[in-house]
Amino acid sequence: MRIGLIGTGRIGSFHAAALARRPDAGSLLLADADPARAARLADRLGATAAPSVEQVFTWGVDALVVACATEGHAELVVRAVRGGLPVFCEKPVAPDLERTLAVLREVAAARGVLQLGFMRRFDAGCRTARELVRSGALGRLHTVRTMTADPAPPPAAYLATSGGLYRDCMVHDFDMVRWVTGREAVEVYAAGSDAGPAAFREAGDVDTAAALLTLDDGTLVSSTATRCNGAGYDVRMEFAGELDQVSSGLDDRTPIASTEPHGPPPASKPWGGFLERFGPAYEAELGAFVKLVRGEGPNPCDGREGLAAFRIAEACERSRRERRPVRLEELPDL
Predict the structure, then answer these.
(1) Which residue, among 127, 79, 96, has the nearest Cα to 307 in the 3D structure?
(2) Do both 130 and 17 map to the same domain?
(3) What's the rounded Cα separation, in Å, for the pair 163 and 61?
(4) How confident is the model at residue 160 (pLDDT cuts 50, 70, 90)?
(5) For residue 84, what is the domain's CATH number?
(6) What is the pLDDT of residue 161?
(7) CATH number for the domain harbouring residue 175
(8) Which of 153, 252, 267, 315 is most buried, judged by most C-beta within 10 A?
(9) Please, how many CA atoms are within 13 Å of residue 64, restricted to the half-sphere of its CB?
C-alpha cells in the first residue's frame, strides 16, 4: 500500500511521522507547495517526496491524507474521491458551509470514503466520558461544560483564513458534545470578544468566545474558548447528571491553580500545545484511517459527522454577528 500525504507543515509532518511508524501503512509519498520542505521531511522519514502535488495523483497512491492549508482541502478531497481514493482530511473540508455542502455532495455522488480529522474522538479521557454518559452512570444528563484555551494567538496570517474561533477551534468542542452525548443541538446563542490583540479585529475574528447550546433533549451546554491563555493549553469537558458528574482533561498537567488552602498544586509542566496534549489521539486516528483503507475497520468520523459539528459552529458565528439565538434548522443541510 502507498499513501500520499499533501501538506508537510506542522500537522502534516506529525501525521507523516505517525504513518511512517506503522508497518501496515506501507510506503509514503509526500508533497507540499514548498517541494524542498517535503523533500527534507521525506529524507528524515525514509519516504519519497514528489516534486509537486500533481505527481501524487499521476504517480499513483492507494489513499490520500490532506493536511495542507484549509483553502486547498476542498479541491483535493473532490479530486481524490473522483479518482476512487479513500481520503483523510484535516477539518474543515472547506472554509464555509456552502462549500462544505458542495464537497460532501461530491463525496456522496462518487460513493467516496472520507474520514475527517476530529482527533478528540480518540482521546482516552473523552472516550471514557462517552462510555459513562452513554451507559447511564451519570443519570439524566442536564449540564455539559466545555472549554478550549490556547496558550498564545496564532500568526495574523493564519487568522485571516482560519474561518474564525468557532469554526476553527470550538468545532472540536461541538463535535465532542454530539459524540459523547449522542444528542443534537437545536439552538445556539453565542457572543465573542475582540478586546485582545489587534490582529483579531483586523481579521474580523474574536480572541475569546462563549456559546450556549440547547440539545434536543433539553440538556444545556456552555462552551468557552480563548486564544490568550498564558497559563498553557487547556481542553476540558464536564458532564453533570442527576446521579454523578465527571470531567475529562483534568490531570497533573492541566494549567490551572486552585485557590483553596488544601487544593491540588499547580501543574509543574503544563500542556504547551495541541500536538503535545493530543499526540496519542492523533496517532490513533491515523491508525484508524489505515485500517479503514485496508478494509479492517469502520469510518470513525465521516463527512456527515463533521458537517454536524460545522453547522453548530456556523450557527454560533451567525448568532455572534446578529446578536440573537439561532436555530439549527435555519442552516442548510444535506
Answers:
(1) 96
(2) no
(3) 30
(4) confident
(5) 3.40.50.720
(6) 87
(7) 3.30.360.10
(8) 315
(9) 32
Percent of the chain topping pLDDT 90? 98
Integer Cα distance of 252 and 15 in angstroms: 27
318 and 212 in a common domain: yes
Per-residue pLDDT averaged across 160-176, rounded? 95
Chain center to CA of 43: 28
Q: In this structure, are 35 and 168 located in the same domain?
A: no
* Tens-place pLDDT, residues 235-292: 999 999 999 999 999 999 999 999 999 999 999 999 999 999 999 999 999 999 999 9
Per-residue pLDDT tens for 215-240? 999 999 999 999 999 999 999 999 99
Average pLDDT over residues 115-124: 98
Q: How many CA atoms lie within 13 A of 135 on its CB side?
A: 10
Q: Are residues 249 and 289 in the same domain?
A: no
C-alpha pair distances (Å), 246 with each of 129, 135, 256, 275, 278? 7, 13, 17, 24, 19
Same domain, 69 and 150: no
What is the extent of the structural domain holding 127? 122-273+308-330
Cα–Cα distance measured from residue 36 to residue 242, given in angstroms and rounded to the nearest whole number: 57
Q: Inform me whether the pLDDT recorded for 191 exceeds 90.
A: yes
Q: Which residues contact 331 (CB under 8 A, 6 or more apart)?
A: 97, 311, 314, 315, 318
Beta-bridge partner residues of 37? none
Burial of 220 (0-12, 13-18, 19+ CB in 10 A): middle
Give all strands of the β-sheet with 220-226 in edge-to-edge order.
245-248, 234-241, 141-149, 220-226, 208-215, 185-193, 326-327
pLDDT at 123: 98
Same-domain pairing of 130 and 251: yes
Where b means 16+ CB within 10 Å and e means fewer, 292-308 reads bbeeeeebbbbbebbbb
Show the DSSP H helices in the chain as ranges. 10-20, 35-45, 53-59, 73-82, 97-109, 124-135, 156-162, 165, 171-181, 198-202, 274-277, 279-293, 303-322
> For residue 234, which of 151, 327, 323, 142 has the smallest C-alpha distance?
151
Q: Which three cell numbers stand for residue 206?
A: 474574536
